[in-house]
Design a protein that fits this description.
CATH topology: Rossmann fold
Number of domains: 1
Distance between the termini: 30 Å
Order of helices and strands: EEEHEEHEHHHEHEHEEH
Largest sheet: 6 strands, mixed
Shape: globular
CATH architecture: 3-Layer(aba) Sandwich
Radius of gyration: 18 Å
Strand content: 25-35%
Structural class: alpha/beta
Number of strands: 10
Helix content: 25-40%
CATH superfamily: P-loop containing nucleotide triphosphate hydrolases
CATH class: Alpha Beta
Oligomer: single chain
Length: 252
């Protein structure tokens, strides 16, 4: 598999009361196509900051983020907006659906920006909604009429309808109950099995088990990696024990 994204000496700092707080420090990281990369670490280790830098949602203080051979850290805000629209999908813990729009309109609004009225777009949206378990009876409802898990699955469809080259997720199950969270993770697992590149931040071991690679951060630096076969292709107990040993070694 080729490299879809990589960083070189990535740094991110914030000014805090006149002092510079270094969140990401000289970080080199490579993301492979079709990989399911999990970013873990203690609170304050820089997980979300790294995700935002990788996705072009925030600019690094120093260093570079390359998407293919393009250094997106040099892009203007307008160029970054186009880059995100053309290449990225986003799923967050907070589910940013438009409350005054129905489920179907939420999906189509994002799709039409890129795809205009391309043939088959409506059917594509319908097929994706069914695939994640959102049946027709919910398409005309508003977000406040759905459960948290249903809203998050709608959010996933919105994130993938434009066929992003890479899907970013920041604690996507953090506000869901265990059943809804498992359903959402099943969607991510199926997407990755079909070749979707995914980078996900989580603090939860059960979520991390879905990945093929776990990158562990401490104080803004990668201190270890753990690799696993695709989820469901190995013994789950052995998978859990291997990840637990790795996390123990990392001081998780």
């Amino acid at each position: 598999m080729g490299t879809i994204l990589h960083t070189e000496k990535l740094c991110k700092s914030f000014s805090n009361g006149g002092m510079q707080q270094h969140i990401i420090k000289n970080l080199d990281l490579e993301i492979k196509e079709k990989d399911f990369t999990i970013i873990m670490g203690a609170s304050g280790s820089g997980k979300s900051t790294l995700l935002y830098a990788l996705s072009g949602m925030d600019s690094p203080t120093l260093g570079s983020v390359y998407f293919g051979d393009k250094d997106i850290s040099k892009y203007t805000n307008d160029q970054l907006a186009v880059f995100r629209r053309e290449n990225c999908g986003f799923v967050f813990q907070s589910i940013y659906l438009l409350e005054n729009m129905t489920v179907f309109d939420n999906i189509m609004t994002g799709a039409l920006v890129k795809q205009k009225n391309s043939p088959g777009l409506v059917k594509k949206a319908e097929d994706l909604l069914r695939k994640v378990g959102i049946g027709e009876k919910l398409w005309g409802k508003y977000p406040n009429q759905l459960s948290g898990g249903e809203c998050q699955r709608v959010g996933i469809v919105r994130a993938i309808i434009n066929d992003p080259k890479i899907l970013f997720a920041d604690e996507p199950t953090g506000s869901l109950n265990s059943s809804s969270g498992r359903d959402v993770l099943d969607v991510f697992t199926e997407l990755n099995a079909k070749g979707q590149s995914i980078v996900m931040v989580t603090h939860d071991m059960k979520t991390a088990l879905r990945g093929s690679r776990v990158v562990y951060l401490r104080d803004g630096s990668v201190i270890g990696e753990h690799h696993m076969p695709p989820f469901g292709t190995d013994d789950i107990r052995g998978r859990q024990e291997g990840l637990q040993r790795f996390l123990d070694d990392m001081g998780w």
